[in-house]
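ARCHIVE CARD
CATEGORY: sequence design from structure
SOURCE FIELD: tokenized fold
FIELD CONTENT:
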């Protein structure tokens, strides 16, 4: 249906191209396609030059022109922190108050509201059962459960339970019955995990 539609072309108008900035070098009429900084104290301001003149400008450009050696050294030192002010540790009592806040946090005396008990959860974690002075991890907890032991089981109890369960589920002891081989594999891997973790 639309294959016979014809549109009359408008008379072609001359295309006017937007002309960019002209080179700012004295006497040059070429396009200023390259930017060059104007200098210290005029950050964000640029001159426009053609390629040949921007190269010539860059050879003679010196940001520190007119500055003494002390001023250059001070500028370089301030450049390390991005020319932002800095303070020594402990200025205005911030350091001491940070230590007080940390001590209060460790003691459980919070100086702020904790309606969702986010920080109280940390105290609960520290009160978990520990084995020989260390916190039991989830992998160790699962391995102990596979051996039917509590988290506070001693090294001797772990070894004794492993021997008992290994004898009970070994096929040679059960007259060649292989029905409990999977259970035996779980027991052996749990014991090896606890051995690698240093609990037995």
């Amino acid at each position: 249906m639309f294959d016979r539609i014809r549109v009359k072309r408008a008379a072609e108008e001359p295309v006017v191209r937007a002309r960019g900035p002209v080179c700012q070098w004295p006497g040059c009429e070429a396009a200023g396609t390259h930017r060059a900084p104007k200098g210290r104290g005029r950050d964000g301001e640029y001159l426009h030059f053609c390629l040949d003149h921007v190269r010539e400008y860059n050879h003679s450009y010196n940001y520190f022109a007119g500055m003494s050696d002390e001023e250059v050294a001070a500028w370089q030192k301030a450049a390390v922190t991005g020319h932002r002010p800095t303070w020594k540790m402990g200025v205005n009592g911030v350091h001491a108050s940070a230590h007080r806040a940390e001590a209060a946090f460790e003691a459980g005396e919070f100086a702020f509201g904790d309606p969702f008990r986010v920080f109280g959860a940390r105290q609960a974690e520290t009160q978990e059962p520990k084995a020989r002075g260390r916190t039991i991890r989830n992998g160790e907890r699962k391995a102990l459960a596979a051996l039917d032991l509590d988290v506070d089981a001693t090294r001797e109890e772990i070894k004794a339970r492993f021997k008992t369960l290994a004898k009970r589920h070994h096929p040679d002891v059960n007259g060649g019955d292989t029905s409990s081989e999977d259970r035996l594999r779980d027991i052996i891997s749990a014991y090896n995990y606890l051995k690698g973790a240093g609990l037995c």
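CARD ANNOTATION: Residues 123-129 have pLDDT under 50 and may be disordered. The helical segments are 51-60, 69-79, 94-107, 120-126, 138-146, 155-169, 181-196.
SHELF: design records, drawer C
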